[in-house]
Specification:
- The chain is an alpha/beta fold.
- It has a single domain, classed as Metallo-dependent phosphatases (Purple Acid Phosphatase, chain A, domain 2).
- It has helices spanning about 15-25, 40-50, 60-65, 75-90, 90-100, 130-135, 220-225, 230-240, and strands spanning about 1-5, 30, 55, 105, 110-115, 140-145, 150-155, 165, 180-185, 195-205, 205-215.
- The strands form two sheets. It has a six-stranded mixed β-sheet with strand order 4-5-6-9-7-8, with helices on one face. The protein has a five-stranded mixed β-sheet with strand order 3-2-1-10-11.
- Helix 2 packs across helix 5 (about 90-100) and helix 7 (about 220-225) packs antiparallel against helix 8 (about 230-240).
- It starts with a strand and ends with a helix.
- The structure holds zinc ion.
- Zinc ion (ZN) binds near residues 8, 10, 62 and 149.
């Protein structure tokens, strides 16, 4: 099965559409959470996702915040602004869609979570210690996660238990073996200094992962953000890719 794996769309419809086009035909779409927050198109992104066949979509921390399920104090100033703005513009249908999203899922023998299998909505998997601890919280070989906005993989050596990992660049395919975490990066707000939308194509049989990037019209998104009076730092970081 050819599957499009994406995460952290963050209400950026232009980036989402660029990824859907660049990915080509796929048999399923796995979205690892944070459909909304930061960007200017929350309802439009939800509508687009709802129109896709064979979608599995998870709840991210920004989705939970838009539903008022998370204390706003947990967010920085700009993120708080965008949560409030998102709450104001979200349609009842958009809210219903977010409210039914699960925190974890199992698909084609792969565990899916937004942040980590231990604490799906909040925990960041960035360091080897946290990754090592999380190996006990899923029982499949593979676990796909998002949340950090950085395309990367972590692998556990089967004999020593040692964790290795690296950033995955455009076009790269980390070898799939043993127990692994794979992160496709962020569609709508990459944070690896590459402003292009990030995603991955996963083949379930035989298992293969390929990281990819899609160019999109960032200026048009920034213009919508300015019109909606978003904080300048949020507007600028899109073009800087962090
Ligand atoms: Zn995010």
């Amino acid at each position: 099965m050819r599957i499009l794996v994406l995460s952290d769309i963050h209400a950026n419809l232009t980036a989402l559409d660029a990824v859907l086009e660049a990915a080509g035909p796929v048999e399923a779409i796995w979205c690892l959470g944070d459909v909304v927050g930061y960007g200017p198109d929350p309802n439009e992104c939800i509508e687009r996702l709802r129109s896709l066949p064979n979608l599995t979509c998870l709840m991210g921390n920004h989705d939970a915040a838009a539903l008022d399920q998370i204390d706003l104090e947990a967010f920085n100033r700009e993120a708080r602004h965008s949560v409030r703005w998102t709450q104001d513009v979200l349609t009842p249908q958009g809210r219903d869609f977010l409210a039914q999203l699960p925190e974890r899922a199992l698909a084609e023998g792969v565990t899916l979570a937004h942040g980590s299998p231990r604490s799906p909505v909040w925990e960041y998997l960035l360091d080897h210690q946290t990754v090592s601890e999380n190996m006990a919280y899923f029982d499949t070989d593979l676990c796909f996660i998002g949340h950090t906005h950085i395309p990367l993989f972590f692998c556990q050596e089967s004999d020593t238990g040692e964790i290795t990992g690296d950033i995955v660049l455009d076009g790269e395919s980390p070898p799939i073996s043993g127990r692994m975490f794979l992160n496709p990066g962020s569609v709508g707000q990459p944070r690896d200094r590459d402003s292009r939308a990030a995603y991955a194509i996963f083949n379930s049989e035989p298992r293969h992962w390929k990281a990819a990037r899609a160019q999109y019209d960032i200026a048009s998104v920034q213009e919508r953000m300015r019109q909606a009076d978003f904080p300048t730092r949020l507007v600028q970081r899109l073009i800087q890719g962090w």
